[in-house]
Design brief:
seven-stranded mixed β-sheet, 18% helix, 13% strand
């Protein structure tokens, strides 16, 4: 049912842009396809909401080299080259400016991304001639499948598949597949493949107990319980020691606190530096001893 409604909406949108398509056909003869596209794209870019999305897609599907029916083209997006292609499930954010570009499927362009027709659209070789009068060269810029381009980035060279380009970056050289790049000019920070993502903590290990150690340099002792914290250990009693450098004495109870110990009485000493004297009672407080009666 949903797909049927979408098909009806696409048909209505095609009817809605038919006057603009007729105008484009006349202007293409007089001005050329690219110049005619610029004017029409500017007009359609001002239509907001889902209505604008359907109208822009309906128009571009009949003007560009390719525009998939599942693409999303947001408010303010401008196009200047009829040779561009937009593949399935591409998202073009608000105020993007696109020249000669091929956006492969699942590409995401955040707001304000500029993709000119390569990096040599203006000639600058002759310093005595105004730049506007010097010949430039347009080249197709391809952004690979599944790539995400951050807000306000400028892309003047090909970007591979499944890449991430940081916001505000300027891509002047080709970026290989699975790269994360950022900066001006954009440089590769790391790759998304083989980066070791998914590990918890630095130097965390497991000892075969089947439980994962979390934290920095944590270990388990084979008891089947996990040690949490920095350099914590268990003594085989089956209970977990919590805290920094805490120990148990085999009584089966855990000592809590810094430097706290038990003396075999089966009761736990609480506090800093407290001891028991064999009476079976715990001394509480700092440095206080229990006296035998």
């Amino acid at each position: 049912m949903r797909e049927t409604l979408k098909a009806v909406a696409r048909a209505v949108a095609t009817i809605g842009v038919s006057p603009l398509l007729l105008s484009y056909a006349v202007r293409r003869v007089l001005l050329g396809g690219d110049r005619a596209l610029e004017g029409s794209a500017q007009t359609l870019s001002q239509v907001s909401g889902i209505v604008g999305e359907y109208l822009r897609r309906a128009f571009l599907a009949r003007v560009l080299a390719g525009c998939a029916p599942t693409a999303t083209i947001q408010f303010g997006a401008l196009f200047s080259q009829v040779g561009s292609r937009i593949d399935d499930r591409v998202y073009i954010g608000p105020r993007c400016h696109l020249g000669l570009v091929h956006l492969e499927k699942d590409v995401l362009l955040a707001a304000g991304v500029h993709v000119p027709s390569g990096g040599a659209t203006h000639g600058i070789a002759d310093p005595d001639t105004p730049i506007r009068d010097q010949p430039g060269a347009r080249t197709l810029v391809t952004i690979g499948e599944g790539t995400w381009i951050g807000s306000a980035a400028i892309v003047m060279a090909d970007v591979g598949k499944h890449c991430v380009i940081g916001a505000g970056s300027v891509v002047t050289r080709p970026i290989p597949d699975y790269s994360i790049a950022a900066g001006v000019p954009a440089t590769i920070i790391r790759t998304r493949k083989g980066s070791g993502l998914g590990a918890r903590g630095s130097g965390a290990e497991t000892d075969g107990s089947g439980l994962g150690a979390r934290g920095s340099a944590t270990e388990t002792d084979g008891s089947g319980l996990e040690a949490r914290g920095s350099a914590t250990e268990t003594d085989g009693s089956g209970l977990e020691a919590r805290g920094s450098a805490t120990e148990t004495d085999g009584s089966g109870l855990g000592a809590r606190g810094s430097g706290a110990e038990t003396d075999g009485s089966g009761l736990e000493a609480r506090g800093s530096g407290t001891e028991t004297d064999g009476s079976g009672l715990g001394a509480r407080g700092s440095g206080v001893g229990a006296i035998t009666s």
